[in-house]
Each structure stands twice: as structure tokens, then as C-alpha cells.
């Protein structure tokens, strides 16, 4: 038997999909393409004037306001360590906090499917109330819509929030500079693993709980050191991989991680081994990444570790002038690998 | 390929005439089908792929392999050979 | 995880690397025929630790990306039917057929579900007696016992609403096809450890002898891969075309007899087209006549669906080690994991995708 390898062929490419697929909401490359190629051209001159981030900082009547919005569609709605209600509050609080802002007020819009039990919505509202009290923010306005049975999926929540950015604070992805130390506030991957553990078709037993938490207190503790924090980012969908790739691209810098310094809890690592996932791509809901001047890194780490949500803070890498736009990790064995931008949904692998 | 990982059998049950086990992967627990490792007992390790134990893990062999790695290089030092440095 | 972490120890890895350097006197080209090993090599940067001239060629070892276009198109056609619940391993969902992928079918209203285990698909069939549940049964010998069990159980339980779309591929015929190729430059193989956990090692000595190549059964953790490479280099340097088992904790020579008995009952050997490669005689399994009633191709009458693969990319040469992924003109340009031209870019373990994801730009 002889095969003609010269003429081995493979198929035509799959180009952009004509309709929305799940990956467009994955927080990776497909989500970014949707914004770049569809939303921004559609908005035209009415679109964002500056850097696109999870949070806009706007000068209004002499004050610098942080403004952010986020949609929540998590399935299942209740998972170990939290619920969609906790996420709806903490997610927006954290988006505001990542600009250095003190979050003040939130709105909440509910899209409810016909037939959803009132008791279930009541539990979500209570979770939101508790999360808002814990974060020190008020839910001041909102809206409710109901869709036909089958058009929605239980409960969708959109929250928006405003906060005030203190004078002299300028925190945004574009400020990442070569030489910066890259810090993380704690263990990676807990939220994503907790949610996956109870997702249909995957269920597994684990003690891992979602890390959902409001982070503005931690940010305030960091700013209290008066260090010039350059970038803050909460690595939610797409995980640390997506967050660092976005920052590297926005600032035109390279990122070098040291893999053995990444705080991946044993159970998260094991769940990822079982499912073939990369912990760097798994979502977090109560962690932040910071790019800070290297000479202030130790001081900042100390301040972070003194805060309940930063106890396990550590340095994971350095911002470098090489390979701009790219995130590279030094492996435990001494090789290197590129940490790429996740594409769409994280999928369990068989191979 | 195939993504397969070692886990320890915590308990063995039967469902629809098929032997099933709860298997512990370092704290993460999952239901696994034991159809192909009929002799495995609680406390032993199996290699699991897509929810099936495809082979029993030979713990003695695992220890042996690691011990071989530990010895490697040391023997050479005894013989006075200096291994070439990595790159 | 026990028996995983110990085999990733950096200090022991450094010793193995030293051993490989000490044993190597000249360039060697060896191929791993396993996507999981490719993943591990790139993921840990193992190829960067090897002596200059010791080259790892990433072979056609990813069952997801070698699944032929025609079978994907059949899967898409079945998944789009009303009343069908189409179940698949996660990584099959983004593999493009000639028009779209399973995500696209799902987005258009098809009921496509990711399952962790084929048995989860069987459970869905029992819970949804008024729906037809189809499982996309792909994979190498490792996955075949799990897929076989589903139809075995479906028959025992009298389930008439479950079927399997089968596209199994086999490793030894692929090794033979690679060695028969006129431009072959592979001098040794790392054999896929988990394939051998099921099938044992006895198919390999005749191949080693016939083609004069050492074959070392190799595991997946960094130390396993380095040990596989170390044993391979040792055999190559000694000029010995023999078979070794460098993964004895998971592989017995006789394989897994219970699994092999099930495989013999449920499947029979068939010719199989490999995506981007072509047809390799006797390189696949299909359902045996005893289980034909569970064949989704027959149940949904898609046997007549034929798709030709179009001549655009060079993944065949990549799979053969004649071309490094980044040497292809389309690599990273027209061809990315997002818009894969070929099999090797389709799966995260395909050689091109692995390069795209992990390789330093300085290497390309």
C-alpha cells in the first residue's frame, strides 16, 4: 500500500458564522470580534471614544465617574459557593473596582421566563440584597420583562453600576509597562470549576466553591499604599489567559508568566486534568490581576495579603518589551509556551 | 490519544447490571464504569478515560519507575561520568 | 493528583533530559502518534529541552481532527433533524464540516449536547423515550471500549431510540501507512500509551521488524514522555528496531482482555478515510453486523451523503513530518484555530493548533 502524501488534502475553512453561536459569549477572541466587527461599526461616531474596557471612566460635572454594565446568564443558577444573584452584584462591582473606583449604585434588569417559580426569583433577589449590603452599594433602579415560555432560560439579569474614581488614580489596560510586576490576588479557577461541577452532562463531586466576592475593598487597600497601580483586571470568562492577552494587546507589551508561581489549587488542577481544561482559561469571580511598578510589588503584596480577599496574593510574572501583544509562560521544566487567547467556549476534551 | 487520568476507587456499586464505582481524582469525584476492570477493588487505582476505567494502575510498577528515575544520573556520578549539561 | 504529579517532577525531568543528551550522538527524527502526547510536549516545552537534531514529528494522533469531513457532514445532517438529541465529546463541536460545525447546528435550533462520557448519552436516551438520541462515536482504540459499551447496553436494555455514528480509527495501520510513504523520514515511534492500555503491545513487534524502526510505548506526563524519548534514542543509537514499554504502570503486553473481547463483539475492521490524509485500508472500526441496527448512518439514511475534501492546505505533509506547521504559508494567516484550514489546526491537539497555541514566535 502506498499513499501519495503529496496530494493529501484537507477541507475548506469554516469562516465567520452567519449567526450567533455560544462561543460569541465566551469572553475570548470571538466575543472581541463581535464587538470590533459588528457593534462598533454599528455605533459609528456614537461609540466609545477611548479604550474599550469593562468599565468606562467619564468626567461628569467635575467628578470622575466609573460606569459599567454586565449581563448574567449562568447555568445552573445556583452553584457551590454562590448564585446568579451574587454574580450579578459582584460582577458589576468588580468591573467598577478595576478602574480604581468606589462603587456606589447599581441598577438591575430582569428578563424572566414565563413559568419560573416566584420562590426562585425571591431567592435570587435575597442573594442580590445580601451581596449589595456586603459590598456597600445600593440597588436603586431596575426593570422587569417576561418572555414566552421557551424564549428565555429561567432568569437573565443585567446590572449596571456607577462609582467614583479618586483623584490621581488612572488605572486602565493601556498603562501596562515593561518592567511592571504582575500580581494575582489569590487562587485560580475556583468559580469555573464549581460551576462546571454541576453542569448537565459533566457533574462531578468536588469541595471547590465559587470565589465570587466584591473586590473594591481590596483595591482600596492597594491604593492606600499610594503606589501607582497601572492596570487592574478581574479574570472572569476566559480566565487569566483572556485577561492577560487583552492587556498585552491593549498596551502593546509582552507578558511573561512563571508557571510554577501560579496559584492553582490541587482540586482545580485535578478537575482540569480530568476534563482536559487549562486552569488559565477557567473563570474566576473574586480575583484580580494587577500590573504594578516592580519596586512597589512587595509592598502591594503585603497590603493585599492583609485583606481577606487577597490572602493568597502573589507575583506571577513580569511585563516585558519583547513579543508585544503576546503572553508567554515559562514551564516548570524550563521550556516556554504561549498562552493564547481562548477562542470560544471551554470544552472538555477527550484528547 | 486520549486524555486518561489515574484515580482511586472509593466504592463499587452496580447499575443496570454494570459495575460502577465512585473514583477519587485528588478530591474531585466522578462516577466511573468498571466493566473492563472486573477484578479491581476499593482502594486501588484505575486509569479513567471518558468515564470508563480502561486499565488498572500497577502501583508497584509506578514506584519502580520513579525509583529508576531517582537512581538515574546518580549511578553515572559514581562512575565519574559527568552528563552533558542541558543546552 | 497521585501518579500524575510525581511524574511531572522538574528535578527528575532534568535528570532524564541529561540522560537523553548523554545518549545522543547524532540527529534522530521520531514521531509520536498521539494527540495527547503532542499536547504534553508543547504544553511543557519538552521539545525545547532535547538535544539539537533530536526532532519530534507530531503524527496523526488526534482522533478529533482525523475524523473525515464526510462523517462530520453526516453528523451535522443528523443533528439538524427534529426529534434528535445529538451527543458528542466537547472537542468535536467546533470541528468544521464542509459548511458549518455542530455549534452552528445548535445555534440554528438543533439539540446538540456535550457529554463527558458516552454512557451519559445512553442515560439521555432512557430519559427521553420519545426522542432519538445519537452519540458521535469517534476516537482511537482508547475510546472504542466506552463507545462499544453503549450499544451493548442499549441492546440489553431494549432501547430503540439510541444509535451510534461511528468513526473509529486504529493506530497500527496508520504507523504502517506512514512508513510506506515514499518520503517518510520517521526513524522511530513513541506509541500511544492509553491505546496500548486497551490493546496491549503485541501489534507492534511485527511493525518494528518490518520497517526497521524502534517503537516505545509511552505515557503522557512529562517524565513519561522524556523516558519514552530516552529509551527511543537508546534503541536508535544501538541500531535496534525493537519494542519497549516505557509506561508499564498502565500498559500490560496483553492489553485489557475484557475490553478487547467487547471490541471484537461490537466492531469489525473497515477501511477508513483520515481527514487530510486519505483512505488507509483496514484502519478503522465500524459496528459489526450483530449491532448494525444501532448504526446511526443506516437509521437516518445518510449513507449516500458524500463529501470530497478540497485541496487547500498541507496538513498531510505536516502529519508526515515533511513540513513543520509554521513552515506552511497559510499557518497563522488564513489558517488559525478559529478558521482552521485542515485537520491539524482543527483540534487543540492537532500539530498546527498546538504550534499556534504554544510555540514562541521566535521559532517561526
Task: Describe it.
The complex is a heterotrimer of chains A (351), B (87) and C (364). With 351 residues, chain A is α+β, with helices and mostly antiparallel strands. Chain A contains eight helices and 14 strands. Chain A has a seven-stranded mixed beta sheet. In chain A, helix 2 packs parallel to helix 3 and helix 5 packs across helix 8. Chain A is globular. The two termini of chain A are 28 Å apart. The N terminus of chain A is likely disordered. Chain B is an alpha+beta fold and 87 residues long. Helix content of chain B is 21%, strand content 40%. Chain B has a five-stranded antiparallel beta sheet with strand order 3-2-1-4-5, with no helix packed on it. In chain B, a hairpin with a 2-residue loop joins strand 1 and strand 2. Chain C has a six-stranded mixed beta sheet, with helices on both faces. In chain C, strands 2-1-7-8-9 form a five-stranded parallel beta sheet. In chain C, strand 1, helix 2 and strand 2 form a beta-alpha-beta unit. Chains in contact: A-B, A-C, B-C. The interface between A and C is large, with 52 and 89 residues.
